[in-house]
Amino acid sequence: GEVCNMINKKYNEFLPSMQSAEDLVSQVDGLTSNIDLLKAGIENEVQRDLNVAVAEFSELKQQLERDTLVLSVLKKLQEFDRAIKEYNTALLEKKYVIAAQQLEKARSNLKTLESRKGFELKILKALGTELTVQTQNMLYHLGEEWQKLAVWKLPPSKDSSSLESVVHSELQLRMVPLKEEDVAAPPVAAVLQAFAVLGELHTKLKIFGQLLLKFILKPLILYPSLQPRTEEQSDVFILSFKSEKPSLDYSSPMEVFEKIKLVFEVLHKYLLNVPLEQPAEDKKEHGVTLAELLGDMIWEELSDCLIQNCLVNSIPTNSSKLQQYIEVIKSTEEFEKALKDMQFLKGDTTELLKYARNVNSHFANKKCQDVIVAARNLMTSEIHNTVKITPDSGVALPGLPDPGAGHHLKTQKTSNLVHNDVVNLENETKLSQYTFALPTCRISSSVEKLMELAYQTLLEATTSTDQCSIQLFYSVRNIFQLFYDVVPTYHKENLQKLPQLAAIHHNNCMYIAHHLLTLGHQFRYHLSNILCDGAATFVDLVPGFRRLGMECFLAQMRVQKGEILERLSSARNFSNMDDEENYCAANKAIRQVLHQLKRLGKVWQDVLPVNVYCKAMGTLLNTALSEIVTRIAALEDISAEDADRLYSLCRIMVEEGPQVFTPLPEEDKNKKYQEEVPVYVQKWMMFKELMIILQANLQEIVDQWADGKGPLAAEFSAAEVKSLIRALFQNTERRAAALAKIK
């Protein structure tokens, strides 16, 4: 019973707590459904109201923005309008600077308006048009004023740059108002500043600058006879010209600078001393003067003109005058300083002054150019005007100064090309003084002058500054390189056609090569140290010149050889001489060859050095003899009459051939060379042996052969001799016996 009680008791206590737990669950369930309702309510109603509020807010915000924009636009429009009104008032009162500033203000308002995106007002286009019209109107007024302030009177003629017409140019500058009632007429400053504000000043000044250059500044530089003339009247200042007979063909830089300076002073005083209001956006350039602007526009062209037409002419042509050039440099400096003081020029050194200060280099350039021009003129002049040179002709020049006792070089004789001392070589072989001497011959007088030019230029180089002497040295090398390129091409046809010119050209080249051997050496102690380490040489040019001379002459020799063979080809092969016609043809061919050689002997006489002359004539005579021997030796049948006639033809060659050797104009001196013909004509003895065979009997031929040890064997082979015997003699036992001995 006790246990039951306990259980009841526990159960009774348990029931209520379970009850409260169930209550709790149902409460939670209720709350949840409440939340769901609320959530649904929020989603459906409150959210909608929120959206409306936000939309309203942004709509208000946009409206505010629109109103602000409209307000600022209206403000800008109002400003634009005010600016235009004020501009109109100022323009009527001729307050040009204020008018221009108002226009610029209107312009910047308009720019701001146009930059608003998504706000295109139709009115803007109209305003733009209005602004353009007003700007043009203002520029027109300013233009009118400017034309009254600076009046150009220009020459009427077409050829406006000639001296005759330039003399009539003048520029008038207004100084004070024209009439009493025009007191308010604006001064120059206002007009120019107004242009500046409108950004049109550049254009105006550029036109003014061009007129100034063309009709005033350049003529003053170009025409020494022009002098600037200034004249001040009550209300106008006049700048014009007067013409005077100049003392020289061109003015000194000092005179030109003075004239130009005067013009700038006038402009500075009456026109350009105006500080400028720059266009609003161009603040950085504040305080630029008109003078500076104009200077910027015309200085480059002006200084070019001064350099080309004034300084260039004043560069001295020989080094002794370089000292005096200092005053030119000084006056250039002063000229620039004056222009800087008037603010036409900015601070740094200009091209003009650099050019003047660089006189040494210009001197060298001018000198080198003169040298090359002179050289070219000599090279293109006639080759055939010649002078005779002998082993002791030197180049006529003053001796060089003694380089100092330290050098064991005797200079007294420099005017002679070869020192008459005996030259010692390493191995103690003695060379005669004539080793480097030239043989007597004729060269073009222009080439002699060219050589003198080279020597004089090198001489000048020895007294010049380093830079200059290097340039002069190289211009001498250029002379020779130019000769090498120009002469063969320029005189090409004549060198091919005229054997005498080919000979002279050959001599010219040899003469130059000869001088080039010693040229650098003679000046080596005098040319600046920079060139002394072996650079001052011309030796490298020597082989080229020798080759040039040889090639030209050899080409001429080939032409002459061709003509000899051409003439001998009409001799009918020297066959059947018993036929009269054949004999005449052969005789004529031989006469023509001799005539050709005689003529050559004459045109080369006294021109070629004797040894070259003898070699050349010997070679050509040899060509003829060799051809005749070949033709006769090839004949298969020679009758007795043929042999006689062939012999008489050969005798003409042997008797008259040597007479074509006349290297010297004095007849009696040529004998010696005519007797030495066998030395120069390789086939001479062979030709004589052939003549012997043509006259000999079989026994005599065998004797001449002498078992292959006789004179005949020295000139002909066994086969050739046998062939001649067969042609000359009929087939007999005696002939067979003779043939057997030729082996």
Automatic annotation (TrEMBL):
A GO term from the CC aspect: RZZ complex
Subunit structure and binding partners: Interacts with NBAS and KNTC1/ROD; the interactions are mutually exclusive and indicative for its association in two different vesicle tethering complexes. Component of the RZZ complex composed of KNTC1/ROD, ZW10 and ZWILCH. Component of the NRZ complex composed of NBAS, ZW10 and RINT1/TIP20L; NRZ associates with SNAREs STX18, USE1L, BNIP1/SEC20L and SEC22B (the assembly has been described as syntaxin 18 complex). Interacts directly with RINT1/TIP20L bound to BNIP1/SEC20L. Interacts with C19orf25 and ZWINT. Interacts with ZFYVE1.
Subcellular location: Chromosome, Centromere, Kinetochore; Cytoplasm, Cytoskeleton, Spindle; Endoplasmic reticulum membrane
Organism: Geococcyx californianus
Sequence similarity: Belongs to the ZW10 family.
Domain Centromere/kinetochore protein zw10 C-terminal: 436-566
Domain Centromere/kinetochore protein zw10 middle: 142-379
Protein name: Centromere/kinetochore protein zw10 homolog
Pfam families per record: ZW10_C, ZW10_C2, Zw10_middle, Zw10_N
Span of domain ZW10 C-terminal helical: 588-742
Heme in keyword set: no
GO biological process entries: cell division; endoplasmic reticulum to Golgi vesicle-mediated transport; mitotic spindle assembly checkpoint signaling; protein transport
Topology in the lipid bilayer: Peripheral membrane protein
InterPro entries: Zw10/DSL1_C_sf, ZW10_C, ZW10_C_2, Zw10_middle, Zw10_N
Chain ranges of the Centromere/kinetochore protein zw10 N-terminal domain: 2-84
Alphabetically ordered keywords of this record: Acetylation, Cell cycle, Cell division, Centromere, Chromosome, Coiled coil, Cytoplasm, Cytoskeleton, Endoplasmic reticulum, ER-Golgi transport, Kinetochore, Membrane, Mitosis, Phosphoprotein, Protein transport, Transport
